[in-house]
Structures are given as C-alpha cells and as structure tokens.
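Question:
Write out your own:
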Amino acid sequence: MKPKIEDVAKLAGVSPTTVSRVLNNRGYISKETRENVHKAMNELNYFPNDVARSLFNKRTNLIGLIFPTTSNPFFGELIFHIENICALLGYRVLLCNSLNQIEKEEKYLEMLMRNQVDGIIVGTHNQGILDYHKQNLPVVAIDRYLSETVPIVSSDNYAGGKIATELLLSKGCQSIILIDGSIELETPAKLRRKAYEDVMKKYGKAPITFEVRETFNHRSQQEVMNQILDEYPDLDGVFASNDLFAATFITEAKKREKKIPSDIKVIGYDGTETCQIMMPELTTIQQPIEQIAKTATDILIKEIEGEFTQFPRETRLPIRLIEGSTT
C-alpha cells in the first residue's frame, strides 16, 4: 500500500499539518523538523501528490509547449533549451507536436487547459484559430503572430535577410533566388523575404521567390528545388530561409553536377548545432536559439507571477553571420 502523509507524520513524530507545511515550504519550520520529515519520506519512499499540492498552491508548475515538430533541428534545439531553463526554475513541460494542423493544435490546447498548465509557449502558425488571448492564461509566441495581446520573441529577421542578400551580391551573384515558406503564414520570418526584396530592388535586380508550401515535407522541398534548377539554369545565388531548404537545394544541385560555390553560392538561415555538425561548410545566418528560449521563458514566468504587465509586443534578438565555403 502506498504510504500516506499520516504515515510520514507518525514516523517523523510530527503532525500531518507540519508535513504539509514542509512540503509546501509554508511558515517557519526548524531545520531539525524539516530534516526529520525528509528522512521519514525517504524511508517510506513517499512521494507528495502533485495534484493535491497544485490545488493548495494554485499552481501546477507545468508549462505547455506547442510546436510543429521536434524533428526539425531549429525547433528541437529550441525546445531543448526551453525544457532545461524550465527545469532550473522548478517547472516541468508538456510537449505537443502539432505539425501545424489546426485540429491537433485545438486538441492539445484543450489538453493543456485540462491539466491546468501555468502558461504556454507556442511556436505554431495558427493565428486567431485558438483565441489564446481568451483563455486567461499566460502565453508567449516564438516567431508567430497569434493575437494582439500575445508577446512574440524572434530573431532580427529583417537584418538577417539583408545581410544574406548583400553577401551574395558582394560575391558577384547576378541571379539570386529566395527559397521560402508560404507567404500566408503569419510570422515575423516574412521579414527575411521583405529584406531580400528591398535589397534586390535597391540594386536594380528583380526579386524571385519560390515557396515550399509543405515546409516539413522533404519530397515537396525536392520538387521545388528541381523546379528552380529547371527554370533558372543561369542561377548563381540562393538565399534559403532555413538551413534545411539550403541543404536540400545543394543536394539537388550537385546531382546536376553544379559546383558549390563556383557555379551557385548558397546561404541558409538558422545556424543550429545539428546543421553546423552535419554541414559545417554551409554559410548561414545564425539565430540566437538559446537566447530566444531564455527570453520567451523569462517573459512567460513574469506573466505567471503577475510581474509582466507592460511588455513590448515583439522582442527581436540579434543574428550572426557564419560564413562557410558555400559562398
């Protein structure tokens, strides 16, 4: 039979109320009493009921995470840092992979609400679908516009797009194509495209963008890359809005015996640890992923604690160019 709080109290020689106060760190408890209670818990292999404690504290110390997929290196690394930061702050996470599907996201939000999470960090695309702002729950978005009241944390996407495009031009590229996700997605990442277009027009060149509609579908990526190579045989520069697009383009270009960078120069965006290990030669715009995770978590915790009432709608963090041999 599982030990109860009364069993711990009896073995420690104190009242059940005192054990409860030790568990919830309430009121003054002498060091000796605290040690006796913990010793009794260890001897009985007693674990406190988190549900009961959450009712007492009006907190579950749970954070919900809703992201498209952990298989993507950017999201995987981001979630890794968020979980580590939450653990250090005494929070556990419930992770939901939505694949950007509205139905899944709705069900996950309902599940998180039923589990009475203290707050949610969101990295999915579905603006307005879930009415996060109506849930009376602290929410922070990463690189996604969800509502007018939900704060957003992202990298400086415009600066990244500008640096990438100017770098290709400085290397002598004349025909530069942007490979991007869907323009319909409500995300600050669209500023990468805006910067590319602005720079191209500034230098008197026509911006050309190809969209990968199914962002996480590798076959869809391959089809777009081959369409680009078919339609623009004189292409000499590519700015891909993420490193996976860049890697897929390079693979397909090499199949056609295109040399990188002498025939086509390529630059990506994200700069994850995984991509740097797998493709150390890739020139990329690195996002400050750990800093994004820390900033988003800090904002959420301040919202939970009621300390973050006046906040900027959007926080943009600095990017960094990592120049490899693909440019």
Remarks:
- Residues 1 and 203 are 77 Å apart (CA to CA).
- The chain has a mean pLDDT of 89.
